[in-house]
Design a protein that fits this description.
The chain is of the alpha/beta class. The protein has one domain: 2-enoyl-CoA Hydratase, Chain A, domain 1. The protein has helices at residues 26-33, 69-81, 99-110, 128-133, 161-181, 186-193, 209-214, 224-237; strands spanning 35-36, 45-55, 66-68, 87-97, 116-124, 137-140, 145-148, 205-208, 220-221. The strands form two sheets. Strands 1, 2, 3, 4, 5, 6 and 9 form a seven-stranded mixed beta sheet that branches. The chain has a two-stranded antiparallel ribbon with strand order 7-8. Strand 4, helix 3 (99-110) and strand 5 (116-124) form a beta-alpha-beta unit. Helix 2 (69-81) runs parallel beside helix 3. The chain is globular, with a radius of gyration of 21 Å. The relative contact order is 0.13. Residues 1-34 have low confidence and may be disordered.
Length: 247
C-alpha cells in the first residue's frame, strides 16, 4: 500500500493567506535559541548556554532541565555563517547526558572558524568534559567542578561481548577528542576516568577548577570578564572570515 500525501493550501480551505509580515523571520527564531551580544559592545558575539542535561535521541521527563541538541546544531550553523558575528562564548553548567549528542555538539564547536571561548560555571560533568574543552580557549571558575568517568549505559542491553566492545569504542572516541582539544595526556585522562578511590557509587574522579587547569583539561582559571577578554583577543588576532563582508 502506498501512502498519498496532499499539500495543504490555506486558500482552498477558505483561510486567508499568511502575509510575509506574519511569518516568523529567522533572526527572531535565532534570538529565542541563543543570547545575542549587545550592539554597543566592543565586539558582536553570541552567548550560547549548555545547561542541565544534554538531551539526545530520547525526550527526558518535563521536570528535567535540558539542552536539546537539535536546537543547538542549527544555532551553531547560523553563528558560523553570520558575517556580523565575531565570536562565540559557550557557558556550561551541565551534569552530562546523551554521549553521542554531546560529542556531536563538541565536534561542531571545535570545527568552527568563528573564534570560540568556553566558560565552565557550576560544573562540566561527564559528556560536559569534551564540551568544556572544545572551544579554542577554555576557562573555568574556581568554584566549578568536573566529573570524569567511563562511558556507561542504562536501560536494557544485550549481555554479549559486542555490547562491551561498543562501549569501549565509544569511550575511545571521547578520550581521543579530549586529548586532541586540550593539553591533557591520554594516560592522565584514563587514570582519572578509572579511579576507584574517589566516588562512592561510581568509578571516576572529580576535579576542582584549579585541578582541571593543572591536569591540562582547561586552559585557565577565570570568570566572565576573563572569558570575554580572551574572546576579544582571539577576535582581534584572527584574520577576517569574510574579507569582502560589508557590515
Amino acid at each position: 500500500m502506498r501512502a498519498e500525501f496532499e499539500t495543504y493550501h490555506p486558500q482552498e480551505a477558505g483561510e486567508p493567506p499568511v502575509s510575509a509580515e506574519a511569518r516568523p523571520v529567522e533572526p527572531e527564531i535565532l534570538e529565542k535559541t541563543i543570547a545575542v551580544g549587545d550592539q554597543d559592545a566592543k565586539h558582536l558575539i553570541h552567548c550560547l548556554t549548555i545547561i542541565g542535561q544534554v538531551e539526545g535521541h530520547y525526550v527526558l521527563e518535563p521536570q528535567h532541565k535540558t539542552t536539546k541538541y537539535e536546537h543547538i546544531i542549527p544555532a551553531l550553523v547560523a553563528i558560523e555563517q553570520d558575517r556580523s558575528v565575531e565570536g562565540l562564548l559557550v557557558i556550561l553548567n551541565t551534569v552530562g547526558g546523551d554521549v553521542e549528542a554531546g560529542l556531536a555538539l563538541a565536534e561542531l564547536i571545535a570545527g568552527m572558524q568563528t573564534p570560540t571561548v568556553s566558560l565552565v560555571v557550576g560544573g562540566g560533568h561527564s559528556i560536559g568534559v569534551p564540551l568544556s574543552c572544545c572551544a579554542k580557549r577554555s576557562y573555568i571558575v574556581p568554584s566549578a567542578s568536573m566529573t570524569i568517568h567511563p562511558v556507561r549505559m542504562n536501560g536494557m542491553m544485550l549481555g554479549v561481548p559486542q555490547s562491551l566492545r561498543y562501549i569501549d569504542r565509544m569511550q575511545d572516541r571521547i578520550v581521543d577528542f579530549v586529548v586532541r582539544n586540550s593539553k591533557m595526556q591520554e594516560k592522565t585522562l584514563r587514570s582519572l576516568m578509572m579511579n576507584t578511590k574517589e566516588l562512592a557509587t561510581d568509578v571516576g574522579s572529580v576535579l576542582s577548577g584549579e585541578q582541571a587547569v593543572e591536569a591540562g583539561l582547561i586552559d585557565q582559571i577565570g570568570s566572565l570578564s576573563d572569558a570575554l577578554e580572551g574572546l576579544y583577543t582571539l577576535i582581534e588576532a584572527a584574520p577576517p572570515r569574510y574579507p569582502d563582508a560589508q557590515i
